[in-house]
Amino acid sequence: MIPTKLKVTHCFYLWITLFLLLNTPLCAQERNVGSVEGGVQMGVNNLTDGTWNMGFEIRYNLKKVPVDVGLLTEVDFYNGVFNAVGKFAVVGDYNFKREENFSQYVGCGVGYGILTRNSCCGSDDKVKCLILSPRAGIELLKFLRLTATLNIPIASHTPKYVSITAGICLGGRRK
I need a labelling partner for 133 at 20 to 30 A (CA). Which of 67, 72, 115, 141 fits? Predict the structure, then answer.
């Protein structure tokens, strides 16, 4: 049996590889999309242990380049060393292939996280840390976003984990 740590990183690298194979060359083009978009998302963590997450994100689409920047707030319910991770992050995405019903993006988030550690004595310990979150995904039918994120908490003895989320995006559609 492969250890969970290997499964997490292999899953993320496989997602990135498939993403890059399906992509067109990087070329900044002016985008004809709305300025602001936001959405809600839900997903799973690590794919194997039944943990899940939910969050909200709001983004601003830059006009001259296929880039958006925004804020993400997310709660990951994680079985293991930590039972919950609350994250507030600044995110940015580069949007590659812009078609009518299909778009690809890659980005990163950097933010503040509060990890609640399981305790044997009935009280939970809280660990505050910086969380780095590289991510890649696709947007389908102008409103459905599927994202793979590798969450890397920068704290001692804190495991990294992969999140796969599906979300509904409102606003930001092509004009």
Answer: 141
DSSP structure string for 144-165:
EEEEEEEEEEESTT---EEEEE
Report pLDDT digits (tens) over 89-138.
Answer: 999 999 886 666 788 899 999 999 887 766 555 556 777 889 899 999 98
Please give the model's pTM, rounded to 2 decimal places: 0.73
How far, in Å, are 69, 75, 113 from residue 86 at the CA level? Answer: 20, 5, 5
Measure the CA–CA gap between 140 and 129, rounded to whole angstroms: 33
Q: Give me the residue label for tokens 């305790």.
A: 119
Contact 69, 59 (CB under 8 A): yes
Cβ pair 116, 82 in contact under 8 A: yes
The pair of structure tokens assigned to 21 is 């194979």
How many angstroms separate the CA atoms of 72 and 162, rounded? Answer: 16
Q: What is the pLDDT of residues 6-59, one digit of tens each?
A: 566 666 666 666 555 555 444 444 455 668 888 899 888 775 566 788 899 999
Task: Give the residue from 145, 80, 74 showing the smallest Cα distance to 106.
Answer: 145
Cβ-contact 98, 104 below 8 angstroms: no
Q: Are strands 125-140 and 36-45 parallel, antiparallel or unpaired?
A: unpaired
CA distances, 161 to each of 15, 80, 82, 83 (Å) = 14, 11, 11, 13
